[in-house]
Every structure is written in structure tokens, then in C-alpha cells.
Specification:
2 copies of one chain form a homodimer. By secondary structure, the first copy, chain A, is of the alpha+beta class. Helices cover about 40% and strands about 20% of the residues of chain A. In chain A, the strands form 2 sheets. In chain A, strands 4-3-5 form a 3-stranded mixed beta sheet, covered by helices on one side. In chain A, a hairpin with a 5-residue loop joins strand 3 and strand 4. The longest helix of chain A is centred in the middle third of the chain and has 13 residues. The termini of chain A are far apart. Strand 5 of chain A pairs antiparallel with strand 5 of chain B. The first copy, chain A, binds a DNA duplex through helix 1 and helix 3.
Amino acid sequence: MNFSKQRELILHALTQNPIHPTADKLYELIRPFMPTISLATVYRNLNQLVDNGIIRKISGLDGSVHYDHCVEKHYHFICTCCNKVYDVPYDVAQDLEQKLKSLTGLEAQSSDLTFKGICSVCQKSKKGD
Amino acid sequence: MNFSKQRELILHALTQNPIHPTADKLYELIRPFMPTISLATVYRNLNQLVDNGIIRKISGLDGSVHYDHCVEKHYHFICTCCNKVYDVPYDVAQDLEQKLKSLTGLEAQSSDLTFKGICSVCQKSKKGD
DNA sequence: ACTGATAATAATAATTATTATCAATTTTAT
DNA sequence: ATAAAATTGATAATAATTATTATTATCAGT
């Protein structure tokens, strides 16, 4: 992977906006700084960054894929009401790959744990109605 | 939900083909038995069955969503080589929602754990080359 | 500084996946 | 049997992603 301004911007936008954005949201975030950037470039770079283990994909939300700049092990909580993605600390479940191997023999390179529910913000606003 | 032949067939195809198929794959599987069924009907019914907790969605594979007839708690292993989806028994990780709550306070309605790696079939065939 | 090889880009077309629309048909409860 | 509600097939519309193509940027080696 060579250096490119576009890739820098995408990575920077991901790091500065820990909102687990989609490719499209990133495109929006970056355009003010580089109006000429192409959506295809965003997609291409995101895929490359994922392939190189620099960022992570989060799927599970309906429709589009979200991205996460944080490589440290952690999980996600998706609010089914506001669709926000929250981080969940690693100690909720540890060494899952190891347990998988000892129980089934399968060797996983990665694991992805995602919870779904209603976040506290949405629970409060619902009560307030 | 009313009864309909189409829904019966979709559910039956899912149960008889534990390959975690996509909507499109199910369409293929069903057409020999009912050539007039519409792809839209397949999508519509899958969504309804998911909403009623009769089947489950599996996302995480690139592209399309896969479906699982089994409602019993279990997880998945996706082979990055052949793209097959294997079932992983529940005892690999138990009571995750409870641990989430006690550690973070978040209340999850569901959790989804997916491993990725290369299955034994693909590992063997690679060695054989 | 210049060059060739390669990688990356913008713009857009193409593809794939899914949902919405709607008139016609089927199912269910009366 | 019949009316209301639900479901269907066909297709259009939308959304998400990937592929294409001509052009431009990067970088190691002159």
C-alpha cells in the first residue's frame, strides 16, 4: 500500500469520528475537506484497510456495512431504535477463538460478537413520550 | 400471519436445506416445486418469519444476508475460502447477554457471535494442491 | 530533475441485493 | 357463501457495492 492523501483522509475521518460510520457517511464527512473525492475511492480504500487489518467491518445492521477504526479487541452493541453502534469491552467474552478450537476443532482467525437491543438514551426518550 | 403455500414451501426448504441459504438461493431451491413463485415473495416471507422469531438472519458474509431455520441458540463459523456457514454449539460461549448487563448495564435482546476462518475441508484441499 | 513501472484516482456504468407498489387472488372468520 | 384481511406475482424503484476506463500520483532508480 502506497501513501495517498485520500487514504489518509479516510483513516483520519474514521479515527476522529468514532461513530462507526458507513462508507457513505464517511464520504459525507470527507467531502468538505476534499470535494473531489469519489465514493468509489472510499469503498476501495475501506476494503484495502480491512484487508490489511487496519480497520474492521461491522455488519449486522440492516443494509450497509459500518466501519471501525479501533483494532483493539472489543465487541458491539447496536441499538435497534436509533441504529447507533456502541462499543462493548472485551472482557464481556474472552478467548472465544480458543474455546471454539477446544470444543469443535475449528480454527478461527477472527470472531465477531454483536448484541442488539435498545440503548439507554432511546429507553429514556420512549418513557418520556 | 395467515397460512400460504409459498410460506410453507419457504420454511420447508429452509428446514430441509441446513446450508444457511440466501434469499436468492432459496428462490432457486423452491422454483422446481413452484415455478411461479416470485422472488419478492421469498424476501417478504423471510422478513416476516424473522419478525415472528421463526427463523434467524445471519449477516457478516459479504454481500447478501443468509437465513437460518434453527432458532435454538447457537453461533456460526464462516469459511472465508468456500463461504460455507457452519453451526457452532452454544456452549462455546454462554449467557453473553447476562455478562453484558452486569459489566455495562446494557440490556441486549439478542446476541450474534460469528467466527471466521478456513474450514477443515478447505485446509485439506489446499494442502493437496 | 526525469523516467518508467506501478498503484491510485475520479467519474460513471454495471451489478447485486432488497424493498415498494398494486391489481388480482387466496385465506380466514363469520 | 361472503366480506374483510392477508398474500401473491410482476415489476419498478431504491440502496449498496463492485467493475470499468481514462487519467494522475507515487516512488525507486537513474
